[in-house]
Every structure is written in C-alpha cells, then in structure tokens.
Amino acid sequence: EHALTVRPVLRLETLAGVKLLQRVDDAGGCPSRVCVDMGTPELARQRIPVRPDTTSDPESPCIGQPIRVLDREWAVTCVSMGNPHAVVFVDDVDSLDLPVVGPAFEHHPWFPSRTNTEFVQLMDAGHVRMRVWERGAGETLACGTGACAVAVACHLTGRTGREVAVQLRGGTLDIRWDERTGHVLMTGPARTVFSGEYSPAQGQED
Questions:
Q1: In DSSP terms, which residues pair with 121 in a beta bridge?
Q2: Which domain holds residue 130?
Q3: What pLDDT does residue 6 have?
Q4: Which CATH number belongs to the domain containing residue 66 in this structure?
Q5: pLDDT (tens digit, 9 = 90+) per residue, 7-23?
Q6: Which helix (H) or strand (E) holds 32?
Q7: Is residue 25 part of a domain?
Q8: Is residue 35 part of a domain?
Q9: What is the mean pLDDT of residues 17-43?
Q10: CA distances (Å), 126 to each of 22, 159, 185, in order?
C-alpha cells in the first residue's frame, strides 16, 4: 500500500524466527490476501514443552491426552508453532466460560512455560470454529500460530485433512499442513486497520 516494496515474497523477522510472506492476489495493486510460511510444527513433549506424566517418552507427541482441569476431564493435543499450544475439542465453543477455563489451562502444572489454549468446534471436515485463550493476554479475537496448531491437531486426531478453514472471532484463516515439506501455510486477509504517529517522550528524542 505504501510502495515500500514490489517483491512478491517478503521476509519478516519475528520473535519466533524469520517468516516468508507471499502475496496471493492483489486488489487495486494492494495485497488483499497473504500466505505465510509458519514453519514446521513441533510435537515432541519436551520441546513444546508439556509434561503430562513422568513415564512418557519426552520425544513422543501428546495427542488426545486426558487432562483434568476444574474437576473435569478433557482431551488435549499439544503443538508448538514457536510457542506452546494446547488444543481442546468441544461440542460448543460459544457456551464455554472462557475467563474461568482459559486461566486454568494456562497455569496447569503440565505446562511449565504456561500455554495458549485453543477450544475448537468441528463444523465439518474442512471447517472448524475456534476460541483462543492466549497466555498473559486472555481471550483474543485471533491467533495465527493458534490457528496453525489447531489445523495440525485436527489432522493428527483424524478430524480433518491437511487443509482446514479456521473460523476465529476476528475472521477466518485458511491453513494447510503441507505433506511434502511439513510446513504449515497460513493464508488470510491483509488490510490496514489503523495508522498513527509516534512521538517520543520529552527528553527521549535520541
């Protein structure tokens, strides 16, 4: 939009590493959708990290593992996309008391670095709805790494194929877990949501 680049692929440095962003299509010369290579998911328990028990192989995945939270048993699938995610499938995401359930998962002893938690409702084999509780932030309208973790968990548990539309409260992301490369590709809309000017505090101009 600001003519800072004409390249079809950009490299974006983030705290989770360098991501490759590719323009999918243009509207009036501006990118309306962007595909982001989010890298490969990490499934080994010790590198997510998650510690369900002392007998599990630390290199083994955590798929559909029973976990007790708030005096109820849930099944959790854990994935790291550069940050830890616990994916839980439920019948109805709207009925969740997320301000109560979310912190209970975030601070559960299984998760030594705390965790982001995605609660997912399967709509059909190519479409899910999701609410997310982000560690340290609470419920948010969207989470890109969370949507990727959900797509991986959906495939690992046999609920969907490798492509799924993840509907968040802030919009829908199309996620594909590429079988050849093992990378997760996230495609969604790109648009300006606000602009502003930064003014340094007095005496901090340098």
A1: 129
A2: 41-173
A3: 82
A4: 3.10.310.10
A5: 889 999 987 788 899 98
A6: strand 30-37
A7: no
A8: no
A9: 83
A10: 23, 9, 15
